[in-house]
Amino acid sequence: MNIIDIINKTKKSQELSDDEVFWLVKSYTDGEIPDYQMSAWLMAVCINGLTENETFALTAAMRDSGDIVRLGIPFTADKHSTGGVGDKTSLIIGPVVAACGVCVAKMSGRGLGHTGGTIDKLESIDGYRTDLPLDEFEDILRQTGFSIISQTGELCPADKKMYALRNATGTVDSIPLICASIMSKKLAMNADCLVLDVKYGSGAFMKTREDAEKLAQLMEKVGRSAGKKCKAIVTDMNSPLGRNIGNSLEVKEAVELLQGKSKGTLYDVCMELAAYMLELSGKGNFDECRALAEEAVASGKALDVLRETIRLQGGNEKICDDVSLLPQPLLKYEIRATKDMKILGFDCEELGMSSLLLGAGRLTKDDKIDMSAGIVMNCDIGDQLSADDVIMTLYSTVCSDFSDVAVRALNAVRFKITEKPSYT
Ligand code: URA
Fold first, then answer.
1. In this structure, are residues 179 and 216 in contact, taking their beta carbons and an 8 Å threshold?
2. Lowest mean pLDDT: which of 102-106, 167-171, 249-253, 377-381?
3. What is the architecture of the domain spanning 331-417?
4. pLDDT exceeds cutoff 80 at 422
């Protein structure tokens, strides 16, 4: 086998054998194929796609490039969202599902571009440790049924290397490559059931619902072909999920939801995803499982799970009762409507970038995050605002000049002036 033949085959849309795909992934991970040749192959995939069989083989080869987690726990459930703006669902769904008796064992990542990462959000809780060894992870899971830690370096090294290369070569946005990247990590985590939340819209990798559905179907097929119970749903990311964007702001919103203080789209998406996880875990039909999930919030049991998990991971669990203990920003900047207006839509990616520029994300991988930074949206699509109403508030401790970010954030809002002109 050689790399030139493999690049040429994919360039001509000829199907690679399983052996060829495994050889390619192993040789690249071992450093035997240089980045420039792998980039050429990735670009050929972006242009011509892969067959289902090639995608299954690519996922399996990437999964097998590192360790496969084997927890001594009889049944675990996992969920994955494909990345969005303001997406704090893992912080809510994990405790909810655990409170209903199903163990949720999750490894998560850090923020990527305009999208936030669950690990960064959790690290905004004073003391919370995300880099636990597997035996401590397992111990917490046995005690509370829920834990999230950061992905270990031994899991899917092929994806780590390929993802960095894709990021630098404009080859991220390919359905089979995204599928293999996500599913290899999820299969290496080895949960018994898996719910996938595939986002579409201006803040998501998939810009259209149609593409998100293709990705969802492919991920479901890959999961099932690997023997997992798997359900993928598509959800809207044309508005930020919930009101808060940014690390401690999102933890605050998740805690407030578990305190029973908020309903709305975030609540509905979380209850739906939790219900699917419970259904796949054999807790009843979808409606029964949704009722279980809602009860876990209403009774406070889900918040109890979160509180105990934070404590066991070394974090200040008191934030579950007093969100003012989370990092607080020194500065705030309100963006207000100058006239009566109707909100028509958002460019969510730009809102995510604005939050990043306030300090909530990284421009380079070594940048330090301002845990207090971010945006609180004060409106949603379809809302009617009056002159002087707040559209959104920007928060930061490190940003010295809000005006550039404010212009960018305001440009991310599409609106129509509804005020009647006055000719006096
Ligand atoms: N998230 C991943 O882990 N991989 C992708 O390719 C895209 C999103």
1. no
2. 167-171
3. Alpha-Beta Complex (3.90)
4. no
